[in-house]
Amino acid sequence: MASTTLICDTEPWKDLKGHVKEIEKTHLRDLMADVERCKSMMVEFDGILLDYSRQRVCQDTIEKLFKLAEAAHLKQKIDRMYGGEHINSTENRSVLHIALRAPRDKVICSDGKNVVPDVWTVLDKIKDFSERVRSGSWVGATGKVLKDVVAIGIGGSFLGPLFVHTALQTDPEAAESAKGRQLRFLANVDPIDVARNITGLNPETTLVVVVSKTFTTAETMLNARTLKEWIQAALGPQAVAKHMVAVSTNLPLVKEFGIDPANAFAFWDWVGGRYSVCSAVGVLPLSLQYGFPIVQKFLNGASSIDNHFYSTSFEKNMPVLLGLLSVWNVSFLGYPARAILPYSQALEKFAPHIQQVSMESNGKGVSIDGIPLPFEAGEIDFGEPGTNGQHSFYQLIHQGRVIPCDFIGVVKSQQPIYLKGEAVSNHDELMSNFFAQPDALAYGKTREQLLGEKVPNHLIPHKTFSGNRPSLSLLLPSLSAYNIGQLLAIYEHRIAVEGFIWGINSFDQWGVELGKSLATQVRKQLNLSRTQGKPVVGFNFGTSTLLTRYLEVDSGVQSESTVLPKM
Ligand code: F6P
Fold this sequence. Notes:
The protein is α/β, with parallel strands linked by helices. The chain is 47% helix and 10% strand. The protein has 23 helices and 13 strands.
């Protein structure tokens, strides 16, 4: 599919550019009055309902977006992904996170080899290990049951597992299985994160899971060495074998670190970090906390969406429709951001996870063939659960900038509450907002309405809502492990669709490298200055001044002895 033709040079792209003028003449108030239009913009699959009738589109726009998909060879690109071709061309790798949740009998090949049996070998090993830890047949160095887990990892080795953990925590079935256990995540190299995560834990009853695809990430490796020290200081060096395990693609480095390779859980280079939550990266810590059967349900939910994405026509294909709508909003209507607004506190870590999946995948400046893009790819993702977001940044969304919103709602709460005498249950109260906000954005409030309400003249401009602000709504039946898997896969594939249309490589991340290498230079300077009193050299004026100021003050630690948090 290598080509020097950019998507913006194709006729369907130009046609859509011209079509913007037509859409600009419309208002969502009028578009929403067309019931046939709205009916055609409802899509249902496996219990999930998508309503995209509040997007600034008419049926003609959708047809044109399908033509764009054809010009971008979207179907062929999806097939190439599922076929295990090396679509991550700059790293010469397949992109097969779909294999991580495939049933045992499925055949998915990378480099001519069916990878599904390898996936299941690791899943079986996780099932066995997590059951042994949970049942107490695997114990710590002093014979105590390991009831707490600290998962060390960052980026994709952290955000996905944290999102799923946070979502499962209040699911009754998952909560029951997790009774008496704790799962914590240590990500930031900030020593404060270490202090927070070890406070209240006893090394004797703690298992540390070091999660790193490469096993070279500076933050993770320093945190891993720190917790190794914490364990050794309390229990002696032999305790590491019982209290530390690893998840990585780099088993030689796991061994070099001092973790028994028998206690390492593998994954493969065809799993991108941000797409790795369904590998041992997420499955191991989550199985330790909730038990493997619950995690299996999460994998099944994701797998259901994988089949839907692969085999459903574009008209009814949720990730395809969502991806095309995002491209429409970003590249044609000129809205660079997207707000992810789950009306569920259990999904509070969903937006941070999708931030990485989306922004690391699609934040690119060149096409997959290295040609600078004359348009901007990627979108700025942010979000908070409703209703908290409503009392924070929704002012800007209603009357300031136009930010297309994803409203995510759940029919049945994980934790229903009803107070006798109240008009509605607590979940109905929450969901009243979920249903109201999209219409407030779409319809707005006119000057005429305000005059009818006798609003004083001087306040009319301040109280007017322009409306015509696009959103879409996703309604999930509940927030079980299965539904959480579905939601994850919908977004993963949606983001791939966007990248396929823009013609970029959504599976590499070269943009994170430069900052890392400059930090190496600073680290060297800090060491020389702290240990040998060497002056700051080789940096620009600003950085030298800041570094000098930083080094003037005693750091509170001596290089001759180990210091651990005192909390
Ligand atoms: O920040 C860049 C990155 O490479 C991410 O893509 C990745 O998820 C994260 O670092 C962690 O990498 P690793 O799992 O190799 O420690």
